[in-house]
Write a structure and sequence with these properties.
Chain lengths: 201, 179
């Protein structure tokens, strides 16, 4: 097999987004926990530390980072700040992702719908994942718009980062082959690389 | 996994001084985009600021007893590859005046000097992250380098379709010279 028989990678190259298009967004959601929600989430998060796949986030290729905190009280700095112990306690969820909001919610629900239910069923007003529209309305009504979101690589999607890291893992072997192999041997190695990594290019 | 410090999350929630909300929002709004002072933080993937206040429930389902927030709070979050103390020190030294402009509008901010008080302020206002997911564990440098290598491979793959083995090897060596 020669290199010109390989998949037409120029198609994927063209599919790259314009470099100046911002691909990263953040979402901050604060919800109020139902009675026993604190206990439920405490147990869930503890379990997830032991069995990380319990939250099942790994398949989702549109989320850079996501995190949860529970706010039983807010840090106190002395007067004039009043002591704050919100009741019910708050669940703070933040996520950095690369998609528009609605497709993001859709893919989130499709990939980890059960885990979303397990987490947010503990919050007042949570409509469940049965209707994307209702879930989007719920999220939008509780959303806090960021005043500032900064990213070191704003034009890159999660998928691109994951693909790039996968390419780099094999790239080192190509470097070795380029040092040691004949042109014909290198071509064989290179074609194997293209076959294995064609989805990442 | 990153060969250095693993990617670390930080959430800091500080109370905004009454009457300073608008000025804070304007200051923080100006920090995004090109030329942002966050560019000076070498190990930081993301930094994010949002001001929160009274929290709703999203529907008519309302808890029977409610005790709402009485003030507004600046929620600062970041993901970076360093110990938290090192990151806070980077904030203090590299963001410099920008730090004063942001947290100077928050109650209890002691200023950048002495550094001990600055670190104590961030420690006091840090909220634990109980659960977290990251798609990958790599430093900013590793990510940017990987994205560039992939881009070069895409270009090479297109070119290679009309190349002889000799040309392919020469072009590969030209694009990816050994250090």
């Amino acid at each position: 097999m020669s290199t010109d028989e390989l998949l037409p990678v120029e198609a994927s190259a063209r599919a790259e987004a314009p470099a100046d298009r911002r691909r990263v967004s953040t979402v901050t959601l604060v919800t109020q926990l139902r009675p026993l929600g604190l206990l439920h989430l405490g147990a869930l998060f503890a379990l997830t530390k032991v069995w990380p796949k319990r939250l099942g986030m790994t398949p989702l290729r549109s989320v850079f980072f996501t995190r949860w905190s529970i706010l039983v009280s807010l840090p106190h700095n002395g007067p004039p700040q009043l002591r704050e112990r919100p009741h019910p306690p708050y669940l703070l969820w933040q996520s950095v992702y690369s998609a528009e909001m609605e497709p993001y919610i859709e893919s989130f629900v499709a990939s980890v719908g059960r885990q979303i239910d397990v987490t947010w069923n503990t919050s007042y007003g949570y409509p469940g994942t049965g209707s994307i529209t209702r879930l989007r309305e719920y999220i939008e009504s509780l959303l806090w718009c960021p005043s500032c979101e900064w990213c070191a690589y704003p034009n890159v999607t999660v998928r691109t980062v994951l693909s790039s890291l996968a390419v780099v893992r094999e790239h080192r072997f190509l470097l070795e082959a380029a040092d040691q192999a004949s042109p014909e041997e290198f071509t064989v190695v290179y074609e194997g690389f293209l076959r294995r990594r064609q989805a990442d290019l | 996994m990153s060969g250095t410090w693993p990617t670390t999350p930080l959430t800091v929630i500080t109370p905004v001084r009454a009457g300073q909300e608008q000025e804070l929002a304007e200051t923080v709004n100006g920090l995004a985009g090109d030329g942002s002072p966050f560019e000076r933080l070498s190990s930081t993937h993301f930094a994010h600021m949002v001001v929160i206040g009274q929290v709703g429930v999203g529907t008519s389902e309302v808890p029977r007893v409610r005790r709402r927030l009485r003030g507004r709070y600046l929620v600062f979050t970041a993901e970076f590859n360093s110990p938290v103390d090192d990151f806070v020190e980077e904030l203090r030294v590299r963001l410099a005046v920008a730090v004063d402009e942001i947290w100077g509008r928050c109650i209890g901010y002691p200023g950048r000097e002495p550094d001990v008080a600055f670190h104590r302020y961030f420690r006091t206002n840090t909220v634990p992250v109980l659960q977290r997911f990251a798609a990958y564990d790599a430093t900013v440098e590793e990510v940017l380098n990987a994205v560039d290598i992939r881009r070069q491979h895409i270009e090479l793959a297109v070119q290679s379709q009309t190349m002889s083995p000799d040309q392919l090897l020469d072009e590969f060596r030209r694009r990816f010279p050994r250090p």
